[in-house]
Each structure stands twice: as C-alpha cells, then as structure tokens.
Design the sequence.
C-alpha cells in the first residue's frame, strides 16, 4: 500500500473515531430526561453563566422580575440563551438569588428536557431546607398532583451559590403530566393582600389582584375571571340547600377539603387556611368546565408547630368555613386528616423520609455559605422537623377524636 | 393611516412667485451694484459679491409632504423624516482658495446642518473643517434637492453615518480619475445617534472614501463611477442606536443587543448615468464588536446590519440627461412643461444573524441574533416645472420580516407619498 493511501486511511480512522465519540456523547446527553433532573436521590449540580454586568444588575434589581440572558449547564448538557430572573415573595434575596429560568424567554420554542421553565428555590425561608421537598412527597403519596423537585448545588459563573431546590414549574407541561390536559385556565394565587374568600364585586377584573393567569394570559378578563367572580359571589350567598350546588359548580369542594386537610396535618401556616389568608396554591379550570381545583405550591412553611390545631384558620376562611357546615365535607376533612396521620406514622414513614432527605443534603447545606442562618440553626431545624414527624400524628389523632366526640 | 404635513402656504407661494419672476432674469445679470464694490445679483440663487473677493449665495428650501400608508408611520415630528422642512443657508467663496457653507433648519431642535469651511491648497489637496457629512454613502452625501426619491434608501438612512463635526482632507488624483476623502470626526454621524434614551453610538471616527471614474475620458462611460468607503469608531458598552425602522418609521427590530468595541462600516457604491438613464447601487455593512458580551464574558460574533439598493432612473421628457433633469430645457410657462423623470428602486435591509452553528435567539447576548429585515420597492415619478420647483410622487411596497427568521411576525404594506419642494 502506498504511503499516501495509508495516510488517507489513518485520517479516515481518526475522523470515524472522533465521530463515534461525539455520537456517544450525544447519546449520553439525549438519554437525560426531566426525571433525571428531578432525581431527588442525589444532589444535582446546576451551573449558570451570566455576564458579570447582568449579574450585578440582577442583584441590584432582585425585587423586580427583569429577565437576563444566561447559559445553563446540567448533566453534561448545555442550554444557551435562557431567560433568568429573580423570583419569590419573602424569599427574594440579592445574596442568595431565588431564580426562575425560562428556556423560551429569548428563544421561541426552546425547551430543556421537555421543560419550558424551572424554578431554582433558594431555600432561604426554611432553616431545615427540606420542608418543601418532604411536604411535596407527602402530597404526592396521597395522590395529589405536585411539582417534582430535587436538590442542587448551584454555581453562577463558577462560584458556589449554595444549596437550592430545582422545582418543576406549574404550567401547561405540569398539567399535561399530572392531570392529562394542558389547555385549561391556570391561575397562581398572587399575594398582594390577604384574601379569605370575600366577594370582590361585579367586575371580574377585580380578581386579577388575587389570581394571576399563567395560561391564556392574553384573553379578556371577562373570559379569565368571570367563573372566579361567580365562585366567590356564590360562596358569599346565604348557606342553604342550594349553596352547595351553586358553589360546587365553580369549585371541587371535596378536592378543596382534601387539599386543606393535608396542609393542616403538615401544620402549614401559609397555605389555603394560612395565617395571612389563602396562599401558595394554583387554581385550575378546565376549558370545558367552570369548576376549579387547587394545585399545591411552595410548602416551605409546613411543619410549623407540632400542636397546631386542626381547626386553625378554618373559621376565618369564608369558603372553607361554609363548606365545613356540610356534614359530609366535615367528615371528609377529618377522614383525610386521620389518613394523613396514619400514613405518616406507618413504619415511621414521615420521619424516615425526612432522615433520607437530610442525609442527601447535609453536606451541601453545611457548605452553603449564603444561607441566612448558621449550620447549627440548620441542624436544629432538621431535628425539629424530625420531632414533628414523630409526634404530629398522635396530636392530630387526638384532635380528630375530640372533634368527632363534639359532634 | 394618513399623515399630511403642510408648511404654511405663504412661504411656498412666495417662493413660487419669486421663482416665476426669476425665470425672466438672465443669468449673471447685474441688478444693483453699489459704491463700495458690492454687487447683488440673481444667478441660480440670490447672490452677493464684494469686488470678486467674497461671494455669498443665499439658499432656501421649503417642502411639504403628503403620506398615506397602510401601516402606522412614525410621528411626523420624528427627526428622521424630511417632513415639512424649511431650510435656509449660505454658500460662497472667499478669495481663490476658501469656500464655505452654513445651512440650518427652521424650527428644529438641532437646527444646524452643514457648517463648514474648505481651504483649497490645490486640486489634489483640500482641507475641510466644521460640521458636514462624513464621506460615506453615495446617496447619503447627495443633497436633498438632488435625490431621485422622496426618501433615501434604508441603508442610507440607517447605516450611513450622516453629519458630524470633523476635519477632512480630500482631493482628486490622476487627472480627476480618482477622488479621495479621509477625515477624523467627533462621532460616527447623526444617523447613528439615538433620538432619545441611552443607546450607544460611535465615538471618535476615522472615515475614508475613494471614488474612481476610470473612464473619465471616454464619452459614453465618462460618468461611470465606483467607490469604496469605510468608517471605524469605538462604541461603548450598551444597546446600539442603529435599529430596524422601515422607510416610514415602522419599528421592526429594536437592536436590544449588547455591543462594545469597534464599529466598522464598509460601503461600496457605483453609479452610471448615460444620457437620459442612470443606474445606481450601494451596499453597506456595519459590524459592531461584542467584546466580552457573552453570558460567560467571552467575545461574541459582531452584531451585523447590512443592506443594499439598486435604483434606476429615466428622464422621460424635458431634459437630455439625468444629471440635468432639475433644469428643464423648456420650463413651464416658458414654452414647455418642465421635465419628467421615472425611477425605480429595489432595496434590502437586514439586522442580526450570526454563526450558522448556533440557534438564533432574541437574547441580547445571543451568539446568533434572531434579527429581522425589510425589503422595499419604490416607484417614483418626478416633475420639474422649472429649476426651482419639484413635485414627486412615490409608491412604496414594503415587506417586513426576514424569511430566515421566525421570531417576528411579517408585515407587508403599501405607502403613497407626495412631496412639493421649492428651492432657491
């Protein structure tokens, strides 16, 4: 064989080899799915790259929802030109940025692992850093649709920012995955002022301050909010035999009671029966119906007190207190609470779940220098959550028994 | 949408009357010599002469536009439109070596146009200083009264730099075959500057142009010229002021793209005017560096804006050459009807783009920018009743939307324009 031919063959071999390696790399990347990203058995690693100028401005304007371009790296994959902004209410921080990543903000139709967006929860409002994760697992165990989430070390421009939760956003993709439809009307409870279920008047647009549309954002307020206005108009009518039917036309009362009962068992102080009015949930309405249902969101205020009463928050919530005047709904409330208590206690499931999660995150949590509390505070908070898991069930069961006796 | 702008009727009527009167005045006829050597006469313009050492021409121009468009058009007060303009100025020479010009708009925020003085050392070396058009762009450096169409092309309006303060060396070499202009300017021209806001534009600018007339001695091709030009300036970090606006001001790309570094303009031009015909073409490309502007702080491919036009004109009647269409052989009311010119122009303007290996994005730090663009076709009919009056009508078909990008909706619309222009 001539030298020239050998040289050509060598080059071909090199090219084929490189191509094979590249293909193998692509195959590895293609094998990644959203389930891998939300694999809570390990602490993920998310790396963000944002121009230093933008990062400075993002920190300065962390109270605004201004998007900045960034590149995101995870699991050997890179997604470029994502939109990144500060997020959160009480959790907004310039030091440890709470972040929302929109993959399609700058690049129409761009998705990452099939996701249009992601939340990077900075976990600054929960010293234990595990409340939201455990609560979501509990909701999921009881059959309710809940966001997938995993923990992650987040780096910005190569600098470790701390331990975050990677949270699946409640959007059309989430709806398709959990309830099999994506084209309905989705609203996020938008906390501007406390809302306890009062009638805000005839103008449907008045409810825009309470519920922010997350789908069909461009549709008219009358289309978006008229069923919600009707719901709270009916809620505030005298409770008679027709009340139940009229209200149930606009909201699934059994689902509402079940949702609230799970939150109550978890001693949620900032949920549907929260201390500051209804908070931290989404409302969803199918296109073919006027009836709404609740979707759980942001449970970092759960595990607040072992002895938090199961009646806490019920009386001041107009919708819920009126719903519980119906015997079957009151019974359902107590039944779900009892089911929660027994499920949590069975084989120490809740305590074991907390132990499992804290084992995964402990090292990263201790290394997190941007969290607004000390490592001792983290350990103490974890200990309290475990204590809650051990003692909450018996407390709730006692309250249920007392409540049933009263009846 | 209809936008109609009329200057006060009195001024054009007065100028028309003056123009009609002036038709009877013989060129260079001396009207009123005075004792001190001062002479006032009417050549093409009112002119004052002092003993042959100082000559000052007085110029004035008013124009009124009527616009009808299927699309929303830019506010008529926008600085980028020659709508309802009233200009006055002087031109002249002092001695054998110095020429000068001062021109300003009436009732505008930034009224001063050309304010310059030129010292002619010889034919091959002249120095010009003051505020004047940076030597870039054939159409952009053509005076308003000599344009073929009502509006300059998109590339001329958006990409050619326009006026600025500076110093320029220019002249002609090789027996007038080669013209050159090279200068230093304070910034990169008023076309690149924002009307408001905080957008960035070029700082100190170096510009140069060479124009060759290679067939200078051959009669048929004598008017053929071709040239190349460049500018270079530094742009501070920010969003550029060069944005996507249609001929009538419809916004189609805001250039929210971070740039920093060198802005380089390159332009090519060619023109040939054989007898009653002319064909003109230009190609302009502006590249703004994006040093350190990627999310990770690395350099990005330059932000590109570019475009071209090809235009042609035909003097249907009233003049023997395109170059003389503005001075009809037989003016209206003097044995003729003036001159008539028919013209057409095709043009393209694009912003954005980038490496084909990257997915286009609207991110201000995208490697490949999902840009936008416009194609336009203009048909123009001009009537010159006499040397001072010109009436133009243009029919414009604009198509906004770059077929290679899908990030922006496309838009197609017609516009109809009429302009009355009176010049002294």
Sequence:
């Amino acid at each position: 064989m001539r030298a020239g031919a050998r040289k050509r063959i060598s080059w071909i071999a090199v090219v084929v080899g490189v191509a094979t390696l590249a293909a193998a790399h692509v195959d590895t990347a293609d094998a990644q799915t959203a389930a891998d990203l939300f694999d809570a058995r390990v602490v993920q690693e998310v790396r963000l790259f944002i121009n230093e100028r933008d990062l400075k401005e993002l920190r300065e304007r962390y109270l605004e929802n201004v998007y900045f371009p960034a590149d995101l790296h995870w699991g050997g994959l890179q997604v470029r030109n994502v939109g990144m902004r500060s997020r959160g209410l009480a959790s907004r921080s310039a030091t440890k940025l709470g972040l929302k990543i929109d993959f399609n903000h700058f690049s129409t139709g761009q998705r990452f692992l099939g996701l249009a967006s992601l939340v990077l929860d900075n976990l600054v409002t929960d010293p234990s850093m595990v409340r939201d994760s455990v609560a979501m697992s509990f909701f999921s165990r009881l059959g309710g649709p809940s966001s997938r989430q995993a923990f992650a070390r987040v780096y910005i421009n190569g600098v470790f920012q701390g331990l975050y939760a990677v949270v699946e956003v409640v959007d059309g993709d989430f709806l398709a995955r959990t309830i099999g439809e994506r084209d309905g009307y989705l609203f996020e409870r938008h906390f501007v002022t406390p809302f306890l279920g009062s009638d805000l008047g005839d103008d449907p647009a008045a409810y825009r301050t309470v519920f922010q549309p997350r789908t069909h954002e461009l549709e008219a307020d009358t289309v978006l909010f008229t069923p919600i206005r009707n719901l709270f108009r009916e809620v505030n009518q005298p409770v008679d035999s027709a009340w139940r039917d009229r209200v149930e036309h606009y909201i699934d009362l059994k689902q509402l009671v079940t949702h609230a009962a799970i939150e109550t068992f978890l001693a949620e102080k900032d949920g549907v029966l929260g201390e500051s009015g209804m908070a931290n949930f989404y409302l969803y309405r199918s296109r073919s119906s006027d009836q709404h249902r609740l979707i759980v969101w942001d449970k970092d205020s759960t595990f607040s007190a072992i002895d938090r009463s199961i009646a806490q928050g019920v009386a001041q919530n107009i919708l819920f207190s009126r719903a519980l005047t119906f015997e079957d709904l009151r019974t359902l409330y107590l039944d779900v609470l009892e089911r929660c208590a027994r499920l949590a206690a069975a084989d120490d499931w809740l305590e074991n779940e907390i132990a499992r999660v804290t084992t995964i995150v402990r090292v990263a949590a201790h290394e997190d220098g941007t969290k607004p509390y000390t490592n001792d505070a983290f350990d103490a908070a974890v200990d309290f959550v475990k204590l809650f898991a051990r003692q909450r069930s018996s407390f709730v069961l006692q309250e249920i028994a007392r409540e049933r006796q009263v009846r | 949408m209809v936008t109609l702008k009329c200057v006060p009727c009195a001024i054009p009527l007065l100028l028309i009357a003056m123009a009609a009167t002036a038709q009877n005045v013989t060129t260079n006829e001396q009207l009123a010599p005075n004792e001190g050597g001062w002479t006032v006469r009417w050549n093409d313009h009112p002119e004052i002469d002092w003993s042959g050492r100082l000559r000052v021409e007085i110029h004035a121009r008013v124009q009124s536009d009527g616009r009808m468009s299927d699309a929303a058009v830019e506010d008529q007060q926008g600085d980028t439109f020659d709508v309802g303009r009233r200009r006055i100025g002087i031109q002249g020479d002092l001695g054998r070596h110095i020429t000068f010009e001062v021109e300003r708009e009436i009732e505008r925020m930034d009224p001063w146009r050309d304010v310059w003085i030129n010292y002619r050392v010889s034919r091959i070396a002249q120095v010009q200083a003051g505020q004047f058009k940076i030597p870039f762009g054939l159409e952009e450096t053509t005076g308003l009264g000599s344009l073929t169409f009502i509006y300059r092309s998109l590339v001329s309006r958006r990409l050619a730099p326009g006026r600025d303060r500076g110093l320029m060396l220019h002249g002609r070499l090789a027996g007038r075959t080669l013209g050159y202009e090279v200068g230093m300017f304070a910034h990169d021209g008023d076309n690149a500057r924002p009307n408001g806001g905080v957008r960035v534009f070029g700082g100190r600018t170096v510009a140069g142009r060479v124009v060759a007339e290679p067939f200078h001695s051959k009669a048929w091709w004598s008017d053929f010229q071709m040239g190349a030009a460049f500018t270079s300036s530094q742009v501070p970090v920010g969003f550029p002021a060069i944005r996507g606006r249609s001929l009538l001001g419809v916004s189609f790309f805001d250039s929210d793209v971070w740039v920093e570094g060198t802005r380089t303009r390159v332009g090519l031009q060619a023109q040939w005017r054989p007898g009653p015909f002319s064909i003109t073409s230009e190609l302009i490309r502006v590249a703004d560096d994006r040093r350190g502007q990627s999310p990770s702080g690395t350099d990005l491919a330059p932000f590109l804006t570019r475009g071209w036009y090809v235009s042609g004109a035909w003097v249907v009647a009233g003049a023997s050459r395109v170059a003389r269409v503005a001075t009809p052989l037989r003016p209206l009311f003097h044995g003729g009807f003036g001159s008539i010119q028919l013209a057409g122009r095709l043009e393209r303007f694009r912003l954005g783009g980038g490496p084909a290996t990257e997915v286009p994005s609207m991110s201000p730090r995208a490697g490949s920018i999902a840009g936008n663009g416009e194609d336009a076709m203009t048909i123009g009919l001009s009537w010159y009743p006499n040397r001072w009056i010109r009436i133009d009508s243009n029919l414009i078909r604009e198509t906004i939307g770059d077929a290679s990008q899908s990030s922006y909706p496309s838009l197609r619309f017609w516009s109809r324009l009429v302009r009355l222009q009176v010049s002294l």
Notes: Residues 34-168 of chain A form one domain.
